[in-house]
Amino acid sequence: MNAARVVACDLDGVVWRGDDPIPPAAPGIAALRAAGWYVAFVSNNSNSPVGDVVAKLDRMGIPATAADVVTSAMAAAWLLAQSLAPGARVLACAGPGVREALAAQGLEVVTDGGAVEAVVVGFHREFDYAALDRASAAVRSGARFVATNLDATYPIPGGLIPGAGSLVAAVATASGRTPEVAGKPEAPTVGLIRERFGTSGVVVGDRPSTDGAPATALGWPFALVLSGVTAAVASLGGEAIPDPAPPFVADDLGALAPALITALGDG
Fold it and tell me: What pLDDT does residue 74 have?
C-alpha cells in the first residue's frame, strides 16, 4: 500500500487511444508525480498482459512497473480464485491478459472448450462465432459466467470500436445468463484498488459510468477527462457529461493535473 495520495488513472481515452498517445497525458502524469502523488493505472481493457501495458506506457514516456497496474483481467481472476480450487478449469473467451491473470491465480486456462467450471469473457479481436458457441454452451451447461467488464466501446484514433461489453452481450444472449462483472465499476476492482494502492486518492477517467462509480465506492473524488468517450453532447456509443458534473472536468490529463494539485494539494 502506497503512503502517498493516489491517482487511479484509466488508460483507454485518458493516456492513449488505441496505439496513439494522447499527448498531454505524459506531462500531466509527470506533474502529478513531481507534486508527490502516486499514479496508478486501472484499466477495464483486459486484453494485454501487464508487461505489455507497462511497455506501452514506457513507449509513451510514462515510466511504470507491474506493481502500478490493475486490469479487469486481474479482477476477474481474483474473483474466481476466491471460490474455485487451484487447478480449476476456466474457459478464457478473452485475450492474453486474461489467460495470464488466470494462470497467476493457479487456475487452468482452457481455450478450446470441454468441461469447465467457469467462463471469462473479455475483449479480444479474435472473437468469432466459434468462440461465441463455445462460451455460451459452457455457460448453459452450468459454468460460472464472469465478464471482465461491460464497456460497450473503446476509443481509438478516429472513433470507437466494440468493447468487452459488446462481446459479453452476445454470450449473455446466447446462453440466457447474466454475468458477474469484475472490472470497473464493480466490487472486485474497487477491492483491488484499496488493497494495492491505499485509502486516499482520486479516480481519473473518461467514462462516468465505469470510472465515476468506483470513485463513489472508494469515497474519492472523480475527475473526468474529455479525451475519450465523453463529451458535452454524447456521440453514438459515447457518454455525456453528467448533470450534475463531477468535481473535476478537463479536456485532458495535461489540463487536469494542475487543477488537481491546486485543489487537493501535494500528495
Answer: 97
Domains of the chain by start residue, with CATH: 6-72+184-264 (3.40.50.1000), 73-181 (3.40.50.1000)
Q: E-strand spans in the chain?
A: 6-9, 16-17, 20-21, 38-43, 69-71, 89-93, 108-110, 118-121, 144-147, 153-156, 159-162, 180-181, 201-205, 222-225, 230-231, 239-240, 248-250
Please, what's the largest Cα pairwise distance for the chain? 56
19 is an active site residue: no
**Whole-number pLDDT of residue 4:** 60
Q: How far apart are CA 249 and CA 21, in angstroms?
A: 20
Task: Return the residue matching grid coordinates 488493497.
Answer: 195
Residue 112 known to be catalytic? no
Query: How high is the mean pLDDT of the chain?
Result: 95
The catalytically annotated residue of 10, 206, 211, 252 is 10
Cβ atoms of 73 and 122 closer than 8 Å: yes
How much is the pLDDT for 17?
94
Annotated catalytic residue: which of 12, 206, 211, 252?
12
